[in-house]
Amino acid sequence: MLEIKNLHATVGGKEILKGIDLVVRDGEIHALMGLNGAGKSTLSNVLVGHPAYTVTEGSVIFNGKDLLAMSPDERSHEGLFLSFQQPVEIPGVSMVNFMRAALNAKRKYQGLEPMDAGAFLKLMREKRKFVELDNKLMNRSVNEGFSGGERKRNEIFQMAMLEPTMCILDETDSGLDVDALRIVAEGFNKLRKADTSAIVITHYQRLLDYLKPDVVHVLIDGRIVKTGGPELAGEIEERGFDWLKPES
Q1: Which domains can be identified in the chain, with CATH numbers?
Q2: Residue 183 and residue 147: Cα distance in Å, rounded?
């Protein structure tokens, strides 16, 4: 599904990614762990096409297509989804209008007719149940007045509506209490399909206890320095990252 080869990227003229190689196959969950500043969020931003980041070398193939040649909206319509570390408010834009516009834009890209209002509202009711998102929030502006947990649930709800094939969860567990973390993680698990893949960016094992990754990678100074199975996350929980840092 996703094949990253020798990816280098800069932001503000500073090189952050220094040669990332990563292959994610259909249905796989890959965890990406590392200290702050290692390049985890930079990788997610590069993949979705954030304009502040510049790719200087390497390639990214997504479902057989050149991802780096696509605009950010094309990447989304092709099935890429990013759950933000800190979801922002969009004052004046209701949740209903926001999601209907996003869903119908994807349908137009796929050559489908827009979804009518009745079918759309029915779909919203079904999907919000997965993450126990209060119906009252649907009438508010996007994330306006939402708690941290509600914002993260809203991200997974949006994912449920758009049905991406590749999900990037960028520190979705950040700031969540135990109950909110469980609801968000279980919501994601309920929405997974056989061909749904994910890159989960996290510092901690607790999220991975729910999501159960197939592969764990450790990113240090813009490079993947170690790859292993789920047990690697437990080892990092016990020992930290120092033992993985390359000698200077």
Answers
A1: 2-41+53-244 (3.40.50.300)
A2: 14
